[in-house]
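User: I'm curious whether this sequence folds into something compact or stays loose and floppy. Could you predict its structure so I can see for myself?
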Amino acid sequence: MAKVKNITRKFVNFFSGDFILNRKLDRHVWFMVYIFVLFSILITWSLTVESALVKVRKNEKTIEALNIARDQRSVELLSLDRRSTLEELLKKNHSTLKVPETPAVILEEK
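Assistant: Here's the prediction. I'll summarize afterward.
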């Protein structure tokens, strides 16, 4: 029973801060506060930088997806430039337009 009381007393002394006064560590409290503040600043800075890097990576993925979409649309537009593709589109949409047989006539101003 004495061991339990001794352990309980030591536990209470440690968490109440009495060990600091018993060992004359109270003159170093400001240094411990300084170290605590430095670690807090370090942790805060690390989390800030990490969240910024996550945003940068997310934006890079978005830019990459947009570049892929742009390239796909460019290819689609280039394929529409071919006469055979246009003829197929006209047939698919049941259009009455036909490919011209003669070149366009240039109008002259008078």
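Summary: The two ends are 121 Å apart (CA to CA). DSSP finds four helices and no strands in the chain.
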